[in-house]
Amino acid sequence: MATFRDRTVILGVGGGIAAYKSCELVRLLVKGGASVRVVMTPNATRFVGPLTFQALSGHPVLVDLLDPASEASYGHLDLARRADLLVVAPATADLLARLRAGMGDDAVTTTALACTCPVLVAPAMNTRMWEGPAVQENLAALLARGWHVVGPSSGELADGDVGDGRLADPAEIAEAAGRILAPRDLEGRRVLVTAGPTREPIDPVRHLSNPSTGKMGFEVARAAARRGADVLLVSGPTALRDPDGVRVIRVSTAEEMAAAVLGAAGEQDLFVAAAAVSDYRPSAPLASKKKKTDGAESLQLERTTDILATLGERLAGRPRSPVLVGFAAETEDVVPNAREKLRRKRCDLVVANAVGRPGAGFGSDRNRVSLVGPSQVEEIEGTKSAVADFILDRVVPLVDARRPRS
């Protein structure tokens, strides 16, 4: 999930059936740390009441431009002055036309006229309307004005038609908003991230692995892409969809991950090793399924390639080597073990956490980590998306110092 801490986002809600989805969008923006102020067209209130948005955002909702209470201080202008981003969702065909024409006949269009911040529109309408030349001309004019668009998506519409026109998923809209608001401090940088578990085959139907879901590494990749980086994500087996704007290589075993990483790492500005790579693999995996027996069984193991240590050794002493960030999943002595990993694997930073604690580690959407550097330790807690941004906040100065921009 994108992070919006210390940001003010105005949500303009148009009068379409998809307005109910904007409630979830408000929830995601608020969860990401945004201060959300909602403005609505009069028709939008016929689908969702202003009180719903007020309860979700924690702020009064602006609908009536002639309301003495809100307009005593020119409420729409006050909102526009404070806004970091205006999101219009749903943007109906009628609302797109009025926005393109520069009209100011309701709270949404008037606020849009006064805003100098970026604007993101999320169209939603019937397929035939969406494909019509008037709508496409209006959208093209708004894009030429520098506005951003997300969606629409394809599927079954409210009237039973099937095709383009559905409002983009609220999570997709929030992600697009996050990309617009993210600092572009990794613009032009190349970032390599690993994520997820690896699977080491015992036989064709069994393997050694771990509980990693890949969520932390995927959030780091998303955050780096939002900040402008050219991101390559090497992922073990996960159920997660590929992050937008990120090149993804899917692998299974530790050796496959090592080959992908070691072949690309030297060209990177930053390597974040968030994957939970298996330390051991069966030394002689079987070609066919091993049948059960009544007696005890033993399994001979051998070490896999230590990707981070190998990379640290290869790049040691190179003046423009990538910044190396390791991850350490520990069950005890978290910080001392992370310091040892920092030294032994020649990392610039190690992100360590105690696995098994409630609300952190494998499978959770949240994390509590210690950022361990050569001379400092910093404790961070939050959603994995927020933690990813915190990590990059600390890493960007290291990248700029190691590899100055030309």
- Intertermini distance: 32 Å
Q: Which overall shape is indicated by the principal axes computed on the Cα atoms?
A: elongated
Give average pLDDT, whole number.
Answer: 88
CATH superfamily of the largest domain: CoaB-like
Quaternary: single chain
Structural class: alpha/beta
Total helices: the number is 14
Would you identify the CATH architecture of the largest domain?
A: 3-Layer(aba) Sandwich
State the total count of DSSP E strands: 19
CATH class of the largest domain: Alpha Beta
Number of domains: 2
Beta-strand level of the residues, as a percent range?
15-25%
Which sheet architecture does the biggest sheet show?
8 strands, mixed
Q: Assign a percent range to the helix content.
A: 25-40%
**Topology-level CATH name of the largest domain:** Rossmann fold
Stretches where pLDDT is under 50 for at least 5 consecutive residues are: none
Write a concise synopsis of the structure shown.
With 406 residues, the chain is an alpha/beta fold. The protein has helices spanning 21-31, 50-57, 68-71, 75-82, 93-101, 107-114, 127-131, 133-144, 170-181, 215-226, 254-264, 307-315, 334-344, 384-402, and strands at residues 8-13, 35-40, 85-91, 119-123, 148-149, 153-156, 162-166, 190-195, 200-203, 206-208, 230-235, 247-250, 270-273, 280-282, 301-303, 323-330, 349-354, 366-372, 377-383.
